[in-house]
Backbone:
């Protein structure tokens, strides 16, 4: 098989909003030193309001095996539990998963699973897991307590359904998912009050954790969000008449951020290639530096450039929202995939390895809180005329090299075609 030319790699790496899916397919099929780090929801399966309704295509799952050792997931969801990806994969296959588990990191980077389904929570204590186990019931109590005091217009049966759909009893990242409430509540102001209730609950949970001696164990992830404030905390995106804003309030383990997961996965990949762990055999995402600049320094100091792979980061949640201030427009940049994609881009720049950032447009799913990519014909050639961020935000440091305006099916087709070619490597 002929490897991709350096011209193709350079061309994609230097492009913004490229629609050259054939070139990306070529890279996936022929690049031997390749590391794909990929999100799940909205990328390889559609976004849905209720996670219990997710489906994944069997052909995609089978294609993953062709990338064995070169592909890892990095998701804020989980591998296990009734809403975990393993159950979705088993349903798609119609049989036991065997060695076709999706390998990688879940729960933001602290739930590791290999392709055989061996699962661990590196760096997580039993006391932390025990506290997390109490969170789902607290979410349900808060939802019921608040909704019993307001006129929400839902029947008892509808209310029960919404609550059941909203309480995600994940092992390592219990979550309040308000998508179903946003769909059913006709009063936008009431939905914003519900957002405020969930924010207040998560703050109370953090306080309770401190009182139990777990002062540095947890943080709250808002998805989607408007970036971080000066203290490093994520900023809630309050709903308005056109968007649902923040729908997921995830109570997560400190250090469970996707960019830290990139370090852990790169450490694992180097062992796969060299039988040595540059950051040590026991390194996990919770041991990573907090600042991205320090993460990049750690990579520069410990990873041999001779073995640095072409890293392809794939995500669907990158936001940029204009906010009016006294000094004019300020752009709040967030999204649960932004930072891990940014770190991959930065590593590519430092090591001159041509890393690629791939963006899958998930605005066509059931969640209407994402700006769609706009495509138009220019001189007979389809061209992206507007990306997923605010069009006025021209200083965003993150470059989306290749985009899939038609969503996860379009991406999966490229992924699967690349896998078919890769089997001959």
Residues:
């Amino acid at each position: 098989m002929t490897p991709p030319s350096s011209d193709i790699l350079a061309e994609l790496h230097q492009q913004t909003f490229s629609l050259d899916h054939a070139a990306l397919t070529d890279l996936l099929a022929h690049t031997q030193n390749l590391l794909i780090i990929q999100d799940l929801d909205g990328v390889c399966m559609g976004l849905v309001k209720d996670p219990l309704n997710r489906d994944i295509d069997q052909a995609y799952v089978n294609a993953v095996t062709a990338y064995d050792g070169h592909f890892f997931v990095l998701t804020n969801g989980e591998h296990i539990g009734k809403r975990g990806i393993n159950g979705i994969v088993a349903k798609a296959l119609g049989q036991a998963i065997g060695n076709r588990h999706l390998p990688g990191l879940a729960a933001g980077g602290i739930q590791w699973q290999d392709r055989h389904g061996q699962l661990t929570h590196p760096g997580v204590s039993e006391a932390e897991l025990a506290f997390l186990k109490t969170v789902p019931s607290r979410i349900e109590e808060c939802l019921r307590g608040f909704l019993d005091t307001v006129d929400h217009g839902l029947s008892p049966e509808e209310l029960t359904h919404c609550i059941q759909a909203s309480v995600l009893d994940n092992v390592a990242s219990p979550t309040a998912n308000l998508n179903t409430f946003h769909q059913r509540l006709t009063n936008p102001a009431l939905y914003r009050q519900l957002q405020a209730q969930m924010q207040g609950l998560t703050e109370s949970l953090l306080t309770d954790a401190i009182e139990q001696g777990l002062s540095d164990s947890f943080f709250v992830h808002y998805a989607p969000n408007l970036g971080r404030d000066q203290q490093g905390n994520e900023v809630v995106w309050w709903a308005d008449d056109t968007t649902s804003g923040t729908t997921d309030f995830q109570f997560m383990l400190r250090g469970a951020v996707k960019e830290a997961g990139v370090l852990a996965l790169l450490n694992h990949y180097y062992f796969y290639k060299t039988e040595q762990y540059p950051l040590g055999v026991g390194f996990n995402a919770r041991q990573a530096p907090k600042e991205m600049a320090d993460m990049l320094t750690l990579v520069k100091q410990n990873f041999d450039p001779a073995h640095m792979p072409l890293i392809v980061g794939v995500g669907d949640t990158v936001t940029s929202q204009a906010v009016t201030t006294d000094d004019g427009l300020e752009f709040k940049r967030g999204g649960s995939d932004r930072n891990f994609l940014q770190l991959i881009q930065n590593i590519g720049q430092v090591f001159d390895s041509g890393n690629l950032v791939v963006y899958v447009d998930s605005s066509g799913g059931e969640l209407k809180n994402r700006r769609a990519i706009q495509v138009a014909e220019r001189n007979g050639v389809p061209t992206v005329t507007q990306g997923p961020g605010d069009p006025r935000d021209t200083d965003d440091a993150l470059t989306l090299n290749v985009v899939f305006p038609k969503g996860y099916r379009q991406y999966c087709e490229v992924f699967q075609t690349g896998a078919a070619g890769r089997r001959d490597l």
